Amino acid sequence: MTDQHKTLSKFLSLVLRHEPQAIGLTLDAQGWAEIDEFIAKAGAHGKLYSRTLIERIVRDNDKQRFKLSDDGLRIRANQGHSIDIDLALQPIEPPATLYHGTATRFAGSIRKTGLEKRSRQHVHLSLDRDTAVKVGSRHGTPLVLHVRAGAMHAQGIAFYRADNGVWLTDAVAPQFIDWPAQG
Ligand code: HQG
Questions:
Q1: 3 state DSSP class of 123
Q2: Closest residue (by CA) to atom 29 of ligand 1?
């Protein structure tokens, strides 16, 4: 992916997850945007996309952040929204353990309140440890927490899996978090 593609991919993330109003775009209740409308409005703001470029960004994105509708007319972000949309995901049973990558500087606060969704719509969890290390590194010295997802599910707490494999839940209470020995 070229630098130009990366820049346009980041802008697509910004618009579809956080600020559609930045270019006067409206998403539907499930977070979908009309591709033609997006291209026109982004173009009016100096960001030049074509349908081919968008298809390439969707295909090549490292975290599969975006999805095209079956008819190919619309696009949405798979997860990570701060705006209030309903991904309409079905609750599914999670594996016994999922991982959350955070930074050591948040440890004290997380011990008190558990994991909160903060500015996003969900707490994000991963199936593998390596992903959690990468996610945590974005915030500082990474700290990987083990979330007892199976036990939470057994108590009726809902889990969802986004189309790119990221696991989502509303919150993780402190009693469901296992800390690494040094944490
Ligand atoms: C932390 C990326 C203090 C939480 C990734 C995290 C992910 C608390 C930060 C996706 C806390 C929020 C999401 C508490 C949670 N006290 N800190 N009680 N509860 N936190 O960016 O999970 O590249 O909103 O641990 O791959 O880091 O954008 O969430 O450190 O899937 O596609 O508050 O974003 O994907 O940070 O990342 P974020 P996240 P993209």
A1: strand
A2: 124
* Tokens describing residue 73: 């007319």
Cα distance between residue 100 and residue 51, in whole Å = 35
Name the amino acid, one letter, at 60: D
| 92-137 pLDDT, tens digit each | 999 999 999 999 999 999 999 999 999 999 999 999 999 999 999 9
CA–CA distance, 155 with 175 (Å, rounded to integer): 12
Closest ligand 1 atom to 119 CA: 24
CB of 151 closer than 8 Å to CB of 157? no
> Distance from the CA of 117 to the center of ligand 1, in angstroms?
7
pTM for the complete prediction?
0.93
Q: Which residues pair with 173 in a beta bridge?
A: none
Q: From the CA of 125, how far away is ligand 1's center (Å)?
A: 9
Closest CA to ligand 1's atom 5: 135
Structure-token pair, residue 22: 């930045």
Sheet holding 74-77, edge to edge: 33-34, 74-77, 66-68
| Atom 22 (ligand 1) nearest CA | 124
Residue 106, ligand 1, Cβ within 6 A: yes
Domains detected in the chain: 3-77 (1.10.10.970), 98-178 (3.20.170.30)
pLDDT at 137 (0 to 100): 98
